[in-house]
Design goal:
By secondary structure, the protein is an alpha+beta fold. The chain folds into 2 domains: about 120 residues, Aminotransferase class 4, branched-chain amino acid transferase, N-terminal domain (D-amino Acid Aminotransferase, Chain A, domain 1), CATH 3.30.470; about 170 residues, D-amino Acid Aminotransferase, Chain A, domain 2 (Alpha-Beta Barrel). Helix content is about 35%, strand content about 25%. Strands 7, 8, 9, 10, 11, 12, 13 and 14 form an 8-stranded mixed beta sheet that branches. The longest helix is centred in the last third of the chain and has 20 residues. The protein is globular, with a radius of gyration of 19 Å. The two termini are about 30 Å apart. The structure holds pyridoxal-5'-phosphate. The site of pyridoxal-5'-phosphate has 14 residues, from helix 7 and strand 12.
Length: about 290
């Protein structure tokens, strides 16, 4: 259960944080959201998440009441009241509710509502980073960019949920989806990276993916460390031939992939470049904490 929830700038107990059945996020998935975590109470890469929230809202023509400054204040207030050292923060902005009205036309909507959910977060166990996870290449394709662009982080995650459901039914930890043209896209809540012959490769943004905040940070780290990096169109055969595979996400950090569809990746354990990037990622967080 979230420890605190901010509802339109008022912090309330989780049990008092209620959403109207006429809310457009509830009815249509007509909302945007962000998730990030804190380390020692400090939000990590919050600015990047807020910028993406603003971009998602712009793409949907969803006005943010009070702009990003107000959202930032709401996050700070909720975090302050939660006292959680390690929290997951979810910002949700819905196009709002008009009591009694169910009308798909966004022109009939009232004022958007801003929610911030802060919950204690239990990180992925270190043993999982040491063993690596299993990934399933699923049959569910990622939404086409010209239908529902995955770059918009909307509250409609049905595509992702169906893909994850398929992966879980096959005993995997996370899925990886192809796009409609058969190129690698991303996981349900993660971006995917491959290593082949010392080169780090990840699907280009025009593969139709979410521009992951962790993805961008890792690409910056890799370039700073002189690791050759490619953002390109990748195929299933690249995934299957990779020396190393890992997924990235704000809650998962850099999570090594040991198997794809039951077949070991490389030696079947986390690879050297993957572990180097995980280490560099965590060092970046530690350095930011020291500066605060
Ligand atoms: C579809 C999708 N791709 C990638 C990611 C990873 O993004 P980030 O690194 O910003 O958490 C997420 C995060 O939830 C996601 O939902």
């Amino acid at each position: 259960m979230p420890s605190v929830v901010s509802v339109n700038s008022s912090v309330v107990r989780p049990e008092d944080a209620l959403v109207s059945v006429f809310d457009r996020g509830f009815l249509f998935g007509d909302s945007v959201y962000e998730t990030f975590r804190t380390y020692d109470g400090i939000p990590w890469l919050e600015d990047e998440h807020l910028v993406r929230l603003g971009n998602s809202a712009d793409r949907m023509g969803l006005p943010l009441p009070g702009g990003l400054a107000r959202v930032r204040d709401d996050v700070a207030r909720a975090l302050n009241e939660s006292h959680e050292a390690t929290a997951a923060v979810r910002i949700v902005v819905t196009r709002g509710a008009k009591v009694g009205l169910i009308d798909l036309d966004p022109g009939t909507a009232g004022t958007p509502d801003v929610y911030v959910l802060v919950r204690p977060y239990t990180p992925v166990p270190e043993a999982t980073y040491r063993s690596g996870i299993e990934l399933a290449l699923v049959g569910v394709r990622r939404n086409a960019r010209d239908a529902l662009d995955p770059a918009i982080k909307s509250g409609n995650y049905l595509n992702n949920m169906l893909a994850l459901r398929e992966a879980k039914s096959r005993g995997a930890y996370e899925c990886v989806m192809l796009n409609k043209d058969g190129f690698l896209a991303e996981g349900s809540t993660s971006n995917v990276f491959l290593v082949k012959d010392g080169v780090l490769a990840t699907p280009a943004l025009d593969s139709g993916i979410l521009a992951g905040v962790t993805r961008a940070y890792l690409l910056g780290l890799a370039r700073a460390e002189g690791i050759p990096v490619r953002e390109i169109l990748l195929r299933e055969s690249d995934l299957r031939a990779a020396d190393e595979v890992f997924i990235s996400g704000s809650l998962k950090e850099v999570l090594p992939v040991a198997r794809v569809d039951g077949t070991p990746v490389g030696a079947g354990r986390p690879g050297a470049l993957t572990l180097r990037l995980l280490h560099a990622y965590r060092s970046g967080i530690a350095a930011a904490r020291r500066v605060r």
